[in-house]
Amino acid sequence: MLNLISFQSSALGSLGQLALLGALGFSLAGLLLAVIGGLRADARVTEAARRATWAVFALVSVGISVLLVALLKDDFTVRYVAEHSMRSSPTWIKITSLWGALEGSILLWAWLLAGFAFILSLTLRRDALRPWALGTMFVSLLFFVGVCATIASPFTPVSGLLADGRGPNPALQNHWMMAVHPVLLYLGFVGLSVPFAYAVAALITGRLSDHWVVVTRRWTLVAWTFLTAAIVAGGWWSYETLGWGGYWAWDPVENASFIPWLLTTAFLHSIQIQEKRGLMRSWNVWLIVLAYSSTVLGTFLNRSGIVQSVHAFAGGPVGPVFLGFLAFLLIVGIGLAAWRAPALRDEAEVPAPVSREGAFLAGNWLFLVFAFMVLLGTLFPTFVEAAQGRRDASVGPAFYNAFAIPLGLGLLMLMGVGPLLPWRRADGQGLLRALVPLLASGLGAALIAFVFGVRATGVLLTIALAAYNLVGLGLLTARAARQAGGLGRTLQAQPRRYGAYTAHIGLVVMALGLAFSGAYRQDAQATLNLQAAPRTLLHEQLELTALRQVDRGFGTSAIASVSIDGRPFEARLNTYVQAPGTLFPAPAVRYGALGDTYLVVTSIDPEGRWASIRLIESPLVSWIWWGTLIICIGAGLTLVSPARPVARAAPAGLAPATD
Q: Which of 124, 219, 522, 652 would give a disulfide with 194, using CB separation of 3.0 to 4.6 Å?
């Protein structure tokens, strides 16, 4: 039996453990009440289940607050603090240590999930879906709170006290983005639990009209926005921390966050078709089941130790449990969808291939194939290891790029022309009218780029499709403005539409950043001697001006001051007391609108005479970060409620119309 509580060992840890056990009890009670309320259609029992979410959220909040206080107070009687924090660490690192290791990260997940369940309990309508949506949320809560309270508890008694703590993972304290990226990622993952809960409720009750889709659109959009920001924030962390000058390496844990994003993006597009045309009902159910299940898959990969990744936690006892929960979600979701398959059939006619519905459907297939191929590449080494008993297989970027580039270009193609096509069916003349200005602008942009020296085929295609999309968005905006009598009116009346257009512009900006930084990145290495003449590298003059070492208490930093074309750069090599033999680079990056200059120190002479450096020039990298910001702004605009038209007063002496 697990030894979970010992007031003698740690009073604070025992308080946290009791809070988690109480939350586990209320999660179980809430699940039972929700099921009974749903089966009996008893509003009073359902209300009791709704209020149980409040107790779960309050108790998990107590648990996570206890852990945070213990981290800030250096209470090493709490096991998690003793193993993953350190007395000499700065305050911000102690705070980020809350999610810097396995047990704390799952506790953060459980707390956010309880928070989403609490918010849902305040917004749920009093309808037949209510008890079953709550019950589905309680199933997730029961799992995550149960894991926190048992096999992955941060509060189990400590076997032996440590005077100063073992300290956090050095890689997670090398850049401030670790205070942002994991929280955004968990908000994205956990946010998908709500639309999943509504989908399950709709399948159980058989109420598969458009209601559940309409209700969950905002929830899904919020989760998708957090997930988008999290993925790019993780890329920025990699860019600023790992010293390789890149931001995406098709790492298994990176892929595990990308798969839910692809599936959720497809879901957001296809629910528009269900709202407008009553089509793709089965698509939407399958997509949200797979999207939420893939978040659990990502958590399993990140915490089971079965994949090799700089982002992964060390293997622990939770891997098999997460695998079991993933299997449970898939079995229940697939089983319910199969049971309700006749009711999920579309009532309207099958959309024509050349129509707006057809473009959305083609886009969904591309997203689905994209997700499947990423999943295949991620799990292939694991399958080989299981079959052969050794871990020597790997899947490199070449495999992923072989399908990611054409699929990405295909999605850009559909993104531009799809909204210009009419619903139901486009005749040949209508298709031609939609395509001619887009193709002409794309061809013109590619020719201009070619004249200015762009020769990479992928980059030329991206430039062409960027112009193609921007012209398409311009035509859509102009058309809507003419119909509404002005751009200002249509922006107020249709913020959802123009938020989507803004997000698409952000994707275009990001695509250009990805294309240029991938194709035209330059990389060179050299050793610079102190007080030596400047050296030319990548057409720039480099001079090593100073070397020094700074003691930071929890580690040291060897700093190389380098002048690049007269501009000062300071690149660091950090070491931490937990890993004195490992060097962690902190590059110096000068961001620019047209490209970044990236300097990283690879080694420094212990006697202070020379430093080996790596210089990287990457065009348009910052467009990735700016594109993401534009995407998030666009997503926020889609959440704005449209302005209601103001009724004009009738002229004096005229009776108002009554018909």
A: 219
